């Protein structure tokens, strides 16, 4: 047994006699002299004050400024169609002409009656000036002339009903009739939309009712035109809040000179309710621990965990409502490698040792 104890004593003596080669001895370990851990390479960015806007997003539907389905007022056959699918027409343009032979003949008869009644009236008025006829005869002639003119106007109105005209300037839809078609009142002929202005209808939560008002500007986007924004302006706010959805309807107007937007299109609405300045940090700097949000700042070369009150996030930036000062450096890259109080360095610093391959225990240096 005595030789075994001698071997154990020799091993313990050899392990304790190395003053400079141990991990905790002078000049040894991972961190060079003093045995500290190597500084972690990170990237930092300052907290900056940036203007931000509070946005309300919604989905809206485009409506035409004016929209109508063109129909006939009378029952008759179509003699001529004067438009094509998708034509742009001015107000008063004749779109369809119905058969009007009977009305044309009645118009000629009414014109003849008016001329005859006017001659009789003028002749009796001349005789009245000469004292040859009583005043009552002239009054009767004037009444007959008025009746003839009224019948003439009635025939003209019926003749106008045979000319179907555009009630306003706009864009026509598909033609649904042809020459020779017998149409009745209510028969659809085509559609007409005024798309010079698009009415955009959408709904917002009632909590925004106090900040949305007529004249407020907004932008709208369509999947048909990616990357393009259409400027709009709030015109009307609905008088009632939906008791089920707790949303209030809003109508905005979009100028549409190129006629790119069409009725029925789905648009994404972004409405700016207010603008303010906020202290922002990169979203990559954020760390979450339960309900608490924090970032790592750099204090005297070491990472310091700093709790913040998180606000809105937008375009890769997050609002720090409290906990930071403008210009204060926060770690934006390499956050997962650091802990509170560990040494850190940035790419421009000379000290420390970058992590990664080759960042393990230092190798022995050759002596003199």
Describe it.
The protein has helices at 2-16, 101-130, 135-160; strands at residues 40-41, 43-46, 48-70, 76-81, 88-89, 94-98, 163-165, 170-172, 182-183, 190-205, 217-221, 229-237, 247-255, 266-282, 287-289, 292-299, 302-314, 317-322, 329-333, 344-345. It has a six-stranded antiparallel beta barrel. It is of the alpha+beta class and 368 residues long. The protein starts with a helix and ends in a 23-residue tail after the last strand. Mean pLDDT is 81; it is low at 1-35 and 350-368.
| Fraction in helix | 10-25%
Poorly predicted ranges: 1-35, 350-368
Main pleated-sheet profile? 6 strands, antiparallel, barrel
Q: How far do the termini sit from each other?
A: 45 Å
> Based on DSSP secondary structure assignment, what is the total number of beta strands?
20
- Overall, the morphology is rod-shaped
- Counting helices, strands and paired strands, the structural category is alpha+beta
C-alpha-based Rg, rounded: 44 Å
Number of helices: 3
How do the strands line up in the largest sheet?
Answer: 3-10-13-12-11-14
In percent, how much strand structure appears in the residues?
Answer: 35-45%
Give average pLDDT, whole number: 81
**What letter string, H or E per element, gives the SSE order?**
HEEEEEEHHEEEEEEEEEEEEEE
């Amino acid at each position: 047994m005595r030789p075994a104890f001698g071997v154990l004593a020799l091993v313990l003596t050899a392990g304790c006699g190395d003053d400079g080669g141990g991990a905790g001895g002078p000049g040894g370990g991972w961190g060079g002299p003093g045995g500290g851990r190597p500084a972690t390479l990170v990237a930092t960015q300052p907290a900056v004050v940036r203007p931000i806007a509070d946005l309300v997003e919604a989905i809206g539907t485009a409506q035409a400024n004016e929209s109508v389905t063109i129909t006939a007022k009378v029952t008759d056959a179509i003699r001529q169609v004067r438009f094509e699918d998708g034509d742009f027409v001015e107000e008063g343009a004749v779109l369809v002409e119905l058969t009007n032979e009977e009305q044309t003949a009645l118009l000629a008869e009414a014109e003849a009656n008016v001329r005859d009644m006017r001659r009789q009236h003028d002749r009796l008025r001349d005789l009245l000036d000469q004292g040859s006829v009583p005043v009552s005869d002239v009054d009767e002639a004037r009444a007959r002339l008025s009746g003839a003119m009224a019948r003439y106007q009635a025939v003209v109105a019926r003749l106008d009903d045979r000319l179907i005209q555009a009630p306003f300037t706009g864009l026509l839809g598909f033609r649904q009739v042809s020459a020779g078609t017998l149409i009745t009142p209510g028969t659809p002929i085509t559609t007409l939309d005024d798309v010079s202005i698009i009415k955009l209808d959408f709904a917002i939560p009632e909590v925004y009712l106090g900040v949305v008002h007529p004249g407020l500007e907004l932008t709208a986007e369509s999947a048909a035109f990616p990357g393009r924004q259409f400027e709009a302006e709030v015109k009307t706010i609905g008088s009632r809040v939906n008791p089920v959805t707790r949303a209030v309807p809003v109508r905005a107007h979009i100028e549409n000179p190129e006629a790119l937007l069409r009725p029925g299109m789905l648009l994404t609405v972004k409405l700016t309710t207010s603008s303010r300045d906020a202290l922002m940090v990169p979203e990559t700097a954020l760390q979450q621990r339960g309900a608490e949000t924090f970032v790592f700042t750099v204090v005297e070369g070491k990472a310091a965990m700093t709790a913040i009150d998180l606000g809105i996030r937008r375009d890769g930036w997050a609002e720090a409502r409290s906990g930071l000062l403008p210009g204060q450096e926060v770690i934006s890259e390499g956050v997962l490698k650091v802990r509170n109080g560990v040494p850190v360095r940035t790419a421009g610093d000379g000290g420390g040792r970058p992590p990664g391959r080759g960042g393990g225990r230092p190798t022995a240096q050759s002596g003199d």
